[in-house]
Specification:
5-stranded parallel sheet, 271 residues, alpha/beta, 5 strands, 10 helices
Length: 271
């Protein structure tokens, strides 16, 4: 009977012991703006030239600051192949490329991975394949606003975002790259997610393009996070480098997923 009791007690305690031994996946979501000015967003920032000696020195400083987190896994905004999501571009990376590429994946992601001695970078972006839905069907929002006489309200939202972007552009000249990245991760500037929620107010009855856009954008970010879960392991220290518009959503997934913990990048940038 004693052996049976000890066996039963062991079954009860084993999950707790395993949980205690499993360190959380620590995830730092670093929101960025596009340094190479691809012009693919609803509101595009005209970024400073990051290839100047001053900006290169500042980016090296950013890298040293983030390296203090001791990342074990770095993920960037690139679509790659399952199941490992290995970034083939990083496999060919050489530090000499920092003198010619303005891409934030190179300037921040690859630079940091190289500094941390990582042999791989993961590309976990999600884009619709043939037959899949548009993750940002903004044209339908515009059409609905026009049909219901709500174009002024929508334009007011866009104008507000435009002023925020213009202000950020104006502050670039007098700010370091660390300072700009701190601002990019502020939930009231580039990482502001409020417009997605405010679009819901323009929906009318069963005509709900704002809700649909909200859902599809959330879906895209859910798929991005699911890819991260495929490659992250307990105890990993992850830096996810994505456009600042993804930050709110990705951090929500991290914060609400057992075994994962959010790490704020700002204290590392404000060294």
């Amino acid at each position: 009977m004693r052996h049976v009791l000890w066996f039963a007690l062991g079954l009860l305690l084993a999950p707790a012991a395993l949980a205690a031994d499993s360190s959380p996946v620590q995830v730092m979501v670093l929101g960025t703006f596009h340094l190479d000015n691809p012009g693919q967003d609803l509101n595009n920032i005209q970024a400073v030239d990051v290839l100047t000696p001053q900006r290169q020195a500042e980016l090296a400083d950013v890298t040293r600051s983030l390296a203090r987190f001791h990342p074990t896994l770095i993920a960037v905004e690139r679509v790659t192949a399952a199941p490992d999501y290995l970034d083939p571009v990083y496999a060919k990376f050489d530090p000499s490329q920092l003198a010619s590429s303005r891409d934030e994946r190179v300037q921040i992601g690859y630079r940091l991975a190289h500094e941390a001695g990582l042999r791989t970078v993961r590309g976990i972006d999600e884009q619709p394949a043939a037959g899949e839905p548009d993750y940002f069907p903004f044209e339908r929002v515009q059409a609905s606003a026009k049909a219901h006489g709500e174009e002024p309200q929508l334009q007011a939202m866009l104008d507000e975002t435009g002023r925020m972007v213009s202000g950020f552009e104006e502050r670039q000249a007098g700010s370091s790259m660390s300072e700009l990245l701190v601002e990019a991760n502020n939930p009231h500037t580039l990482a502001d997610a409020s417009m997605y929620y405010r679009l819901l107010s323009l929906d009318s009855g069963e005509d709900q393009p704002g809700a649909e856009l909200f859902g599809y954008w959330t879906m895209r970010n859910a798929k991005i996070f699911a890819k991260l879960m495929d490659v992250a392991r307990p105890g990993d220290r992850v830096v996810v480098i994505f456009g600042a518009g993804h930050k709110h959503w990705l951090e929500q997934f991290v914060a609400n997923t057992p075994g994962y913990a959010v790490v704020d990048p700002v204290p590392y940038l404000n060294h």
